[in-house]
Each structure stands twice: as structure tokens, then as C-alpha cells.
Amino acid sequence: MPPERRAPRWASGVAIWVPAAIALALLVLPLVALIVRAPWGDITAVLGQTNVVQSLGLSIATAATSTAISLVLGVPLALALGRTRSWPVIPRRLLRALVTVPLVLPPVVGGVALLLLLGRRGLIGSLLDSAFGITIPFTTTAVVIAQVFVSMPFLVLAVEGALGASDRRVEIAAATLGARPLTILRRVTLPLIWPGLSAGALLCFTRALGEFGATVTFAGSFPGVTQTLPLATYLQMQTDPDAAIALALVLMAVSLVVLVSLRDRWIPGLSS
Amino acid sequence: MSGCRAARAASAALIAGIAALALAACSSPGPTSSSAPSSTADELSGTVTVFAAASLTEVFGEAEKIFEKQHPGVDVVISYGGSSALAEQILSGAPADVFAAASPATMTTVVDGGGAEGEPTVFATNTLEIAVPRGNPAGIEGLADLADPQRTIALCAPEVPCGAAAATVFQSAGLTAAPDTLEQDVKGVLTKVRLGEADAGLVYRTDVLSAGGDVTGMPFDEAADAVNDYPIALLADAPSPEAGQAFVDWVLSDAGQKLLKKAGFGAP
Questions:
Q1: B154: nearest CA partner in chain A
Q2: CATH number, span A62-220
Q3: Residue of A nearest to B15 (CA)
């Protein structure tokens, strides 16, 4: 190719760096505004309030529980999805679409759907109530269920993507060498998809930590029981925007600490 | 050094990009101000942007239709939301003509921030009622049942106006409320009652009416101690002040008041 027809070297730099800078600004500048507007003077007073400590504790505990549940249930779901490759196209795509529905559903609608299923008059909830006297809404269990509903798809898709990208011949080789299916899963498959799995788990945790709409609809909002940090933050916004900003900063700090620390430990390949 | 220069160039491009975005955002309400309303009331034209409390959704929707029929040149655009969020948006420079708030306190923040033109006028009131699901399955009889921990009760959080009103009525009744959830807004309480998840909740009379037959409302005496005033005001930076004022006048007129009464609001 003659040199004059080739774009100058700086052009490719501009083509990447300008949109990249705009993208970064779009993601980061709102947070910068939050930090600038934060009431640094009385931030310790705001953060020392018992309801803040309470809702932060509740948020971390429920998000960790939801992530654990998502791992236990979501990884097998991803493995099962991986085995549907031999299926006809339509049921296979339908199954994958069903897994992604919670991602596109507005969380408040997800919360209503959970109420209609597990609420006191819901499809399953009414049976639970009449047979065992169990009601789920307005409990911490409801918070965890709402978080699993909205965050597990992130884990499933990440693991399924990692499975699709991994070299299945290694598994076949292990099988021909006489490894049992569970051994292959533990010694070959899981190590292969480990980066996707841990990235998915992190996404799942942070999504659960920030969950608002499904939680407030399905679980309600009561301090110490169902009022997680995002709910407390939104409520503070009504009366005391400064305190709400301080709470938002706490949520951001927790997410950042989790993302930075765990990422480096679990996924050396992805950390710089 | 060159990396530093590159970064500076990138940030300059970035600022230019943001400025372009900001200009685009600013120019969008342009048609509003350019098609300025003419001086005579009969020939009003332009767009009236109304920021209204969420509880006015149904009734202002009606008002919009009637007002637009009376003034064919005017397009009424209504943005509904929580009063405090709307007040925050107005003070941040949102291009609105009229603000109708669900509480005097949020209107005061706009007036104090210099956002209102003249004094706000109270155009409606709203009273709390006990809402129970259709058929009242839990047999709720009065406010005392909402202080019973055995029942599932939904109230607004004390931070929002309906929650403050609820606290007042429980105080006048000498009761301690036993809520299972403190919702972020009154529609949250209504949803929980409507779906039968809560045995009872405190909502406004207008919310009971808006839910149709799904919930039953029970008036109670102490509600008189927490009647909520709804103020309306023309805004200081209104792009269409004349058409905006005409809308305010219509809401305060007999026709407007009749519509509000039908929706369950009380007279100011």
C-alpha cells in the first residue's frame, strides 16, 4: 500500500484518545461533582449516625449473602447454559434471553414481579403463608431475594462468556485421561473460567450493593431490617441533600475498595 | 513532557465536547422562549412547563387537557415528581414556568432561593385516610389498629411530607405507630396496600380515589390535625410568564377548583 494512502500515525491516537477521554469524563465527572459538593466539614457527624452504620452493615451483609447465593446457583446455571450449545437455536436463545430479562427490566418492575410471586397474595407466597405462616416481604430475606434477582444475571453471563471463550479440548483431554466429571469441573473447568467467574462475582456484589428499585418495592424500607444504604441515601435526599451526598460517598468508597482490592488478588491477569 | 501536553490537549477537547453538549442542552427549550406569548390573554401561545407534585398526576393531566382546549396556542408540558426533588431542580435552573408543590416547606425552599415570582397561593388541601385492601381482610377498624405490632402496616418515612403528617396524627391520638415499612413516598404505601401486602397504610384521600376499587379509604378524626396545603407559584425565570400565569389562574378558578374537588382534594 502506498504510504500516502495510509492515515498518519497520530490519527489513530486521536481516534482512540478523544472518545476515550470523553467516555472517562462521562463516567468520572459526576463523581467528581459529588466529591466537590460533599459536606467535608461535618462528614464525621453524618457518618457517625446510628442509621448510617446500621444501613451500611445491612448493605454489606445482604450483598455478600446475595453474591454467595448467586455463586452457588448461578455457576451451575452458566454451566448448564454452556451445555445447551447442542440444542436447536430457538429454545437455546429463549433460555439465554430469559436469564437476561432481569438486566433490562426496570428494577421497580422486578420488585412488583417478586411481590406478585412471593408476596402474601402471590403465586407461591400465598401458599407459603397459608401452609407455613411464612411471609417474605418486609424481611431481610426479601432484600437478599431482590438483590439476587437483579445481580445474578451479571454473574451467569460473565461465567457463560468465559466458558464460551475457553478451550474445551482441555476438558476432553482430561476426560480421555480418565478424569471423572466432577474432577474435570474442579481441576480443569473452574480454573479455566476463573477470571470470568471472579469478575462476574465482583459485578454481582457491586450491583447488589447499589440495588434500590426492586428492594424498595419488594422488601419495603425499615431501619435495621430492610433499609439498605441506597434506600437510606434516597430518603436523606428528601430532607438533607448534604447528608445524602455523604452517604453516597460511603457507598462509592466501599465499592471502590472491594473492586480494587479483590480484583488485584483474584484476577492478576486483569490488573495492570 | 509530551505525555503531559497530550493530556492537556485531550482535556481541552474534552471541555470543548462538554461545552457543545451543554449548548445543545440549553438550546433545546429555545422554541419555548422564542415563541413568546403575546400580550392579550385570548391569544396566548407558547409552551407552559409545569413542575407538579406526583400526587397531582391525575388531576393536572385533566387540567392540561381543558386548559389546552381553552388556549389552542398553548402547549402545557407537566413534569411530575417528588416535591423536594422538583424544588431542587428549579433552584438548579430547570426551565419551568409554574411550580405546584405538595407541601409549603418545599415551596418555601424555592421562594427563599429566589426561584418564585411573587407569593405562592394555596390552591388545594389533602387529608390522610386509612387505606385497607379491598374487603379489609385484616378487619382494620381505626387508627388504633395501626399501632398493633401484630398487623402489617405501611407508612411513609418521617423524612417525607406524608410521613411527617402520619407522625402528627399518631401523636394527637396518643398512639405509637407499629409500621413494618417506612416507604419513600405515598405511592409506595398505596402499592403495598393495593397488592394486599400491608393490612393497612396511611395515604391521602386523593390516593384512595386514584386506586379505584382496589383500596378502601377510612376517614378518621385526627387527620384534621395534619391537613396538607398545596401551594402554587409562577417561577421567577419562567420562559413563558404570561401563559404560566394563565395556568395558575385557571387552577385557582372555579373550574379548576371543581376539578380538584372531584379528585378528592379539599378547598384551600
A1: A220
A2: 1.10.3720.10
A3: A22
